Amino acid sequence: MSLPIQIVLVEDDTLLRDSLASYLTLVGFLVVAVGDGLSLYRLLGEHKFAVAIINLGLPDEDGTILVSYLRRNTDCLIIVITAHDTLDTRIECYRVGADLFLGKPVDGCELAAAIASLAGRRATVVEPPLPRRVAHSPTWTLVTRQRALVSPASQRVELAVKECQLLTALVGEPGRTAKRAMLLEAIYGLKDKNTERALDTLVRRTRRKIEVATSITAPILTEHGVGYTFVANIHVVED
After folding, report:
1. What CATH number does residue 173 fall under?
2. Is 28 within the bounds of a domain?
3. Among 34, 56, 102, 169, which is disulfide-ready with 186 (CB 3.0 to 4.6 Å)?
4. Which residue has the higher pLDDT, 158 or 172?
5. How confident is the model at residue 23 (pLDDT cuts 50, 70, 90)?
C-alpha cells in the first residue's frame, strides 16, 4: 500500500494557498499550508516533509533564503513558485538548491504531476502522475431541477439558484477549466467589476456550503486568472 506524500506549502496569497492545498489534498497528498517563512521554520522543528513548495515573494523572508536553508538542512524536494518568472530568477533558484521552478499562475494538476514525478525519481512509492480529474474518485451527483448536490456518501446539499447555475456551468465540460468570462455570462449575463466580485463570492459560498454539509473538501479548484474546475467525478441528472 502506498503512503501519501507529506507536503509543506508556503504561500502568502490566501486564495492561491487554499486552492492549491485543497486540490493536492483531494488527489491524495498530505498538505500543511502556511503563509510565511517563520511558520515554515517552526514546522520544520516538528515535522519531516518529503516536498516543500515555496513562493519566492513572502512577506517576511526572501524565498531563495528558505530554499537554501531547506537544501542545507533537510532532504526534501523543493519546488519554487513565483510570479517573477525570469531567467535570472530561475538560475538563482537552481543555484541555491531548487529541484523545480514553476511560474504563476500555477496549475494544480501540473503541480500534482510534478510532485509525483519528482518523488518517483527518489523511489518514493507514489501513485502515477495525476490527470485533471481525479482518477477513480467517488462520484458526486448534481440534480439540476431539484437544485441539489449529492455527495458520494449520499449527503444532500440544497443549492440556491446561482449556486446550481455555477455547478452546472463547471461540470459542462468535464475535466476542463470553466473560464471566468463563460461563468460570468452563464450566471450573470454580463461582465463588470461587480459581477467579477460576485462570482468569487459565489464560489466561496458554494464551497463553504458543501464543506459544512458533507465535511468533505469541496472539489472546486481555482485556476487563478483563468477560472474554476470541478475536479471530482460528477453525474448530472434533471430529476
Report:
1. 1.10.10.10
2. yes
3. 169
4. 158
5. confident
**Residue 86 in domain:** yes
Considering the domain architecture, whether residues 115 and 145 belong to the same structural domain is answered as: no
Residues 29-64 pLDDT 10s: 999 999 999 999 989 888 889 999 999 989 988 899
Q: Give backbone dihedrals phi and psi of 77, rounded to 5 degrees, phi first.
A: -75, 145
Q: How many residues does the chain have?
A: 239
Q: Are 49 and 8 in contact (CB under 8 A)?
A: yes
The Cα 38–Cα 198 span in angstroms is 34
- If residue 172 lies in a helix (H) or strand (E), which one and from where to where? none
Number of structural domains the chain divides into: 2
Asked, for residue 133, whether it belongs to a domain, the answer is: no
Residue 227 backbone class (left: φ over 0; alpha: ψ -120 to 50; beta: rest) = left
Q: How far apart are CA 13 and CA 36, in angstroms?
A: 10
Q: What's the chain's Rg over C-alpha atoms?
A: 19
Contact 70, 76 (CB under 8 A): yes
Would you tell me the crossing angle of helices 63-73 and 37-44 to the nearest 10 degrees?
Answer: 10
Instruction: Count Cβ atoms below 10 Å from residue 174 Cβ, excluding itself.
Output: 13
Contact 187, 137 (CB under 8 A): no
C-alpha cell at 210: 458543501
Residue 28 has pLDDT above 50, yes or no: yes
